[in-house]
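User: Show me a protein chain along with its predicted structure.
Assistant: Here is one chain, sequence first, then structure tokens.
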Amino acid sequence: MYNVVLWEYNFEIFRLAVDANHRVRGIGKKLLRSVEAYVKERRNKQRPVCIKFVANTLTILENAANLYERCGYRVERETPLGNQLVLRTYTKEVGAN
């Protein structure tokens, strides 16, 4: 399951999730790569552009954080939310093909 929201040339990966019974099978990585490929293909058909993917996750969700980092996303910022919760923003920039 995923949604992609367009803001100019930034695309936010919103609520990427894999059911707990199906984790550690590479499904999250396949979903993420599919989203990236879909967006790159659609944008480059219109005109070649640089694309910035943005994803947010809580730091307590270590598997999600590890997924983004393994797929080439970099930490852009951390936002304290209170009660020891921290929202981490990841980004990945992709040049025009």
